Amino acid sequence: MTTLKTKVLPADGHLATTSSGARARHTPLMPSAGMRRVWLTLLGWGIALIIFFPILWMVLTGFKTEAEAIADPSLIFTPTLESYVAVQARADYFKFASNSVVVAFGSTLLALLIAIPAAYAMAFLPTRRTKATLLWMLSTKMLPPVGVLVPIYLIFRDLGLLDTRSGLIIVYTLMNLPIVVWMLYTFFKDLPRDILEAGRMDGASTFQEVVYLLLPLTLPGIASTGLLSVILSWNEAFWSLNLTSSNAAPLTAYIASFSSPEGLFWAKLSAASTMAIAPILIFGWLTQKQMVRGLTFGAVK
Hints:
The protein is mostly helical. The chain has helices spanning 33-61, 66-71, 82-90, 93-124, 130-139, 149-159, 165-189, 193-201, 206-217, 219-235, 238-243, 251-256, 266-286, 288-295; strands spanning 4-9, 14-19, 22-27, 259-260, 263-264. It has a 3-stranded antiparallel β-sheet with strand order 1-2-3, with no helix packed on it. A two-stranded antiparallel sheet has the order 4-5. A hairpin with a 4-residue loop joins strand 1 (4-9) and strand 2. The chain is globular.
């Protein structure tokens, strides 16, 4: 009868099994958790670099001359502020930037004022039509904006809202309202009903219940929803190009002004784009913790 003997070889970390008339067989161990973590980190950085590279390319192109931007794709060059000076001389950047700030934050504030009561009613006072209403609201995002451009343009013309900040605020509010309501609804649904019922038993009115109980407990979710609405409003280009001309034009219209029939001026277009996205990139970087916290709010109970 053949006798099996097993022993551990600490020198190389392998398990050797020997038997009479058989050679030793080695079974490699599974990769350690540390190596998996290293590979996942490298993979994450690689994906981030691929995603970020177009933005890096745009920023670098803004510091080139027009001749270098077209003929020289190299990342090594002599930087110049020529394009930024030309961009600022052509149009007042701060006027467009102020329009973007007012419209983005104004539409977000208005959307939250409408969405918070709506989401509260749907989350805590549902009816048989609540789910159907939510699905209908979300389905409006599937409609191409160009499909309602003509009626909205005519309504705004008759009401004197063309090329006004208030007109853009209204349009951006309607554009983001379905997403804002849906997000707030999911955050409110995760809140235990017992807390609100305890407030009612103590004599709190509906307004006090919302202001003193609901809003403080769901503040991370409300903050992340507001941040997302600001970003969506800041990046919106279709309505700004069709409903404004000069007075209320935001930074998206500012960027489009550097595309002319004579061709694309890559260096100036890159410089204008960099100036347009810089504020929202800084804002997003400063508030990334709040956004992540809000988006994961209620995910783990």
